Prior knowledge:
The chain is 43% helix and 16% strand. It is of the alpha+beta class.
Amino acid sequence: MKKYAYTDNQNNVVISFSTTKPTAVDVIDLSPEQDECIDDVPGKYQAAWEIVNGKIEVNLDKAKVIKLAEIREIREIHLEQFDRLQARYIGSGDTDGVARCERRKEMLRDLPTIIDWDSITNMYELGQIRPPEITD
């Protein structure tokens, strides 16, 4: 059995294990040396993969969109936590706590706009985006 990569009808790169080569136009044989995509070893950005000149590459612009969605998803979890905490502060009359929660929530809301997406030029830099407001 061999491992192949090809682009399907929706322009997604598909990894296939088969004894016969798929009939797609841009099929590549994935040898162990080029196992999937070097820049995206865990396959986190597989929706951004493209076959270019017989190799799988990550489309950085598409990967940035995936990263932004991930940041927004994590941000929403933190916003919900701060909403609950803020409600407790309101209930106890702690105005300083309410103000702290409000400042923290504002930082989280601004997060996608404060990242300089244009300065990210490769997958390593994209992987380094771990803003302090959303790290555990």
